[in-house]
Design brief:
alpha+beta; 2,3-Dihydroxybiphenyl 1,2-Dioxygenase, domain 1; 2 domains; 10-stranded mixed β-sheet; 8-stranded mixed β-sheet; globular; disordered C terminus
């Protein structure tokens, strides 16, 4: 068991050509609450709990602009910077006003081995007085498990696994080397906060996952999708590793969002890291690609990424 300075996935910065559609999608479909965080014109932020920024929307070509990880405390912050220095990872410190627009006191940015921007945030802003109230009445599972998880295919798989396990100190919970190569790891009780998939020479985000505390809320969100509020990409099913019952949909920027319930909570002190055996596969049942889905990450499956 590693001791990581990282507490969990804090926020995701999504860049989109249609910020208005993403704002409606986050609030009306996902059930997030628009934040009062002060932001530059054209940007918006959404809450899932007391945190002032879980999803940050900014205008521009469709992409995941950055993934932000929470650092536990000031001692962990110093530990993180020492880890980056020892590994020869160059980091830049955001200006205070830019860090505040991430909902944090201090933020440093790095480029991970896949070439993606990664941010680390110290002292994230909470607002428990302005109580989080979901427009759809959902309650998200966050707390000591962080926002959820992020999955991406990467062109240099071994280097990326090394970065998250050995540099950041994540615990690897499970690996796959049957039909695909994949690593599932995290720094907290969520089964995994990041999943890395061998992209066979390509790097591509696959999805972010958010978890709610009631199966009925997954079903109600699925009903909204089936009524046309977003394209369904993968039908409902249950994963074999984190036991999440979920479905996948496309967002206005093309990024998939997994909407799930009852993910496995891990005791890091007793968990045994394992490798998938047998026939291989992602799910105990379901999770079949939607018949009408024309989505790169789905058509590419988890065996490779697409440009």
């Amino acid at each position: 068991m590693n001791s990581s300075p990282i507490a969990g996935l804090g926020y995701v910065v999504i860049q989109t050509e249609d910020t208005d559609r993403w704002n409606v999608y986050a609030e009306s479909l996902l059930g997030m609450m628009q934040s009062r965080l002060s932001l530059p014109d054209g940007m918006s932020a959404f809450r899932m709990d007391d945190r002032m920024a879980r999803i940050i929307i900014q205008p521009g070509p469709n992409r995941v602009a950055s993934v932000g990880w929470d650092v536990r405390n000031s001692a962990a912050w110093e530990d993180l910077l020492h880890r980056l220095d020892r590994a020869g990872v160059t980091y830049d410190t955001m200006k205070p006003e830019d860090a505040a627009a991430r909902g944090a006191t201090e933020v440093v940015t790095v480029t991970d081995p896949a070439g993606d921007e990664v941010e680390f945030a110290r002292q994230p802003f909470n607002d428990a007085i302005d109580r989080f109230i979901s427009p759809n009445g959902v309650r998200f599972v966050t707390g000591d498990q962080g926002l959820g998880h992020f999955t991406k295919a990467v062109r240099n798989y071994s280097e990326c696994v090394h970065f998250y396990l050995d540099v950041l100190g994540f615990d690897q919970r499970e690996s796959i080397d049957i039909k695909i190569r994949a690593s599932f790891s995290g720094p907290n009780p969520r089964h995994h906060s990041i999943a890395l998939i061998d992209g066979d020479g390509h790097t591509h985000p696959h999805h972010i996952m958010v978890e709610v505390d009631a199966l009925d809320d997954v079903g109600r969100c699925l009903d909204r999708v089936l009524k046309g509020e977003a394209p369904l990409t993968v039908n409902i099913g249950r994963h074999f590793n984190d036991r999440m019952t979920s479905f996948y949909m496309s967002s206005p920027s093309g990024l998939q969002v997994e909407y799930g319930w009852a993910g496995l909570r891990v005791d890091a002190g007793t968990w045994v890291e394992y490798a998938q055996g047998g026939v291989g596969g992602a799910s105990l049942w379901g999770h079949q690609p939607a018949e009408a889905a024309e989505h790169g990450a789905v058509s590419g499956g988890l065996t490779r990424a697409v440009d």
